[in-house]
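Predict structure. Chain length: 168.
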Amino acid sequence: MIDLTTPLSEEVIRRLNVGNVVTITGNIYTGRDAVLPKIVKAAEDGTLNDLGIDLQGAVIFHTAVSPAGVGPTSSNKMEIECTFEPLSKHGVKMHLGKGAISKETVKALAEQNAVFAIIPPVTALLGSQTMEQEVVAFPELGMEAFNRLKVVKYQAIIAAAKGESIYV
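Prediction complete.
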């Protein structure tokens, strides 16, 4: 088990390999198909700071936050997977979700020294490890808004790193 604390450094990411089991503690962002393309646009037009978002060393969890809790959504949905590369270029070090991603995305992650980790759908467990949540951008999207969570020891498995993937 490798304990990680956000924000994640370049060196920490370089030490991760496919199959490592990690725990994540600290602030992470949440987003899925409705909001992630908006975050990419804000990163590209330089307005992330206006939203109070700092992606340097960030973890983005592909989920919505609802009264039922949090659980991963499929990261290989086009609207989500197409955000891996640009968000990694803007500082995201770990994308957290579920499902197989393409070889092209695995390669793009390697080029940006970023990783993809999977988390099983364990909504009840994650709820007990989520200490705080706040909507930080696009509240009009309801449970699909961009959130910041304060978490303690979220467990995940590195699924893509250094150009390798558990799926390919």
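Summary: The two ends are 23 Å apart (CA to CA).
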